[in-house]
Amino acid sequence: MSLQVYIRPAALAESPQAEGGAVRLAGGMAWASRFAVIVRDGARVIARDVVSDVAGALAGLPAEVRADGAAQWDALCSPRQPLTLPLKDGGQRVIRMDSPQIMGILNMTPDSFSDAGQFLDKPEVAQAHAAAMLEAGAAIIDVGGESTRPNAPAVWEGDELKRIVPAVEHLAAMGAAISLDTRRLVVMEAGLKAGAQIVNDVSALRHDPRALPFVARSGAPVCLMHAPGDDADLHSNGAYADVVLDVFDWLREHRDRAMAAGIPAEKILLDPGIGFGKTLAENLALMNALPLYHALGCPLLVGASRKRMIGALSAEAPAHKRLGGSVALALKMMEAGVQIIRVHDVPETVQAMHVWRGMRDAALTDFSQIVE
Q1: CA–centroid distance for 143 within its chain
Q2: For residues 228-239, b (16+ Cβ closer than 10 Å) or e, as one string?
Q3: Which of 45, 138, 186, 200 could form a disulfide with 223 if both were Cys (CB 3.0 to 4.6 A apart)?
Q4: How far apart are CA 264 and CA 298, in angstroms?
């Protein structure tokens, strides 16, 4: 047998008082009171029990998966460490992981699916947009110079450098926390030197074999995103026995690969890759299963802003008319305890987060009055 175990939070709660014995997930603002303990033999699920007593359920697991189950349970219950990012002036910026953080998207591309060409070759416009996102409450700006939409043409690394580096330098001078949305080693090197602090690689450091040891040496946090395809087409080969569990296994494998190369677990972020090689049904399944991925022990970074799934559910609304759906998905991520939410529409998402946070804070005191 080739057994694998998974612990999926099955009943979320607004506060620990709302459900007796609720567990705080990953030290964030999501709680769960019941958990599905799932055992898979290869691609086939052979057991699924929904329990409140996870420790008791783990004791009854087959011996070969008991230790892994205990490690996942510990990861679900343990807080995530903050990201401490160096600034160009010698200071630091700390990104806390105990409440949702908003990452604003700055696409320096001519062909992105949503905001193609709005900022490319328009430095003043790009800088104003980045400043507005920071002022609105974005904790991190994610700068990208290559579209990763389906069938997008490859970009020469020289063009990507010309698109990304000036934007990073300007943001660094503003004291911003900056993420590099790239899979190319030379762009990682130049971007980090220019003042970026995080690598966000849609290929999970597979595009260039030199990228993994470089990121390990750099000390920069890195986001590893799930994509089923190879380097030529990240959207291809999307065949799953169970998309939720298969993505979990893939992320675990690439987390372990990064850790073996010397990247500490607290500097690895994981992204299930909404929209990359998945059908609408598979994307919805992943969104509903987001709390499961806390069992991997790393902060989660998820982006679904303006993506195709929103259009598919709303009369084929074009990308620039998907604000409502984007905010709805962002709220779903907050409910699931996702630490970093990557969005185009920062002011609206930050406003929604503040309202959500207010309700969540209030829920902590709703049960404080004891009637005698």
Answers
A1: 15
A2: beeeeebbeebe
A3: 200
A4: 10
Question: Is 307 one of the annotated active-site residues of the chain?
Answer: yes
Domains of the chain by residue range: 3-77, 83-360
| CB-count exposure of residue 359 (10 Å: 0-12, 13-18, 19+) | exposed
10 Å Cβ neighbour count for 310?
23
DSSP-assigned beta bridge partners for residue 106? 143
From first CA to last CA, the distance across the chain in angstroms is 56
- Which secondary-structure segment (H or E) carries 166? helix 157-173
Choose the catalytic residue: 307, 308, 322, 360.
Answer: 307
More confidently predicted of 74 and 122: 74
Active site residue 342: yes
Give the pLDDT of residue 368. 55
Q: Which of 34, 40, 306, 342 is catalytic?
A: 342
41, pLDDT greater than 60: yes
Q: What's the pTM?
A: 0.94
Closest CA relative to residue 271, chosen from 172, 198, 211 = 198
- CA-angle at 279, arms to 274 and 280, nearest 5°: 80
- How many CA atoms lie less than 13 Å away from 67 in the CB half-sphere? 1
Q: Provide CATH code, domain 83-360.
A: 3.20.20.20
> Residue 5: enclosing H or E segment and its boundaries?
strand 3-13
Q: How confident is the model at residue 229 (pLDDT cuts 50, 70, 90)?
A: confident
